[in-house]
Design a protein that fits this description.
mainly beta; 7-stranded mixed sheet; 4-stranded antiparallel sheet; elongated
Length: 121
């Protein structure tokens, strides 16, 4: 069983900054990738940013240049630094990890419970 511990949600004014941290705990042999997704009520969950074990990072077009994902999958921790926040960034942010519990490398997916970020105008 793998759990993702998230921290850093809260209320921030438009133009401000906030960081979200996520650490994976549990029966982990290898992590292929970790990242953050967000969900706005009534809409589908969407990718915000993701980093692979090789260090390659992808971002949603809407956050490029404003958000930075750092960390290392080998350390089971990633941090999403969000700058120049906009009201449309208001959402529940969920951490995600694609991990293998043992050397057979049969990857499974884990999700965090979510951290709410509210950007006030």
């Amino acid at each position: 069983q793998v759990q993702l511990m998230e921290s850093g949600g809260g209320v921030v004014q438009a133009g401000g900054s906030r960081s979200l941290a996520c650490t994976a705990y549990g029966n982990i042999f290898n992590i292929n990738s970790m990242g953050w997704y967000r969900q706005i009520p009534g809409k589908q969950r969407e990718l915000v940013a993701r980093i692979s074990s090789g260090g390659n990072t992808v971002y949603a077009d809407s956050v490029k240049g404003r958000f930075t994902l750092s960390g290392e999958t080998a350390k089971h921790t990633v941090i999403l630094r969000m700058n120049d926040l906009k009201p449309e960034d208001t959402a529940v942010y969920h951490c995600n990890a694609l991990y293998a519990p043992d050397s057979r490398l049969s990857y499974e997916e884990a999700w965090g419970q979510g951290a709410t970020v509210t950007v006030s105008s």
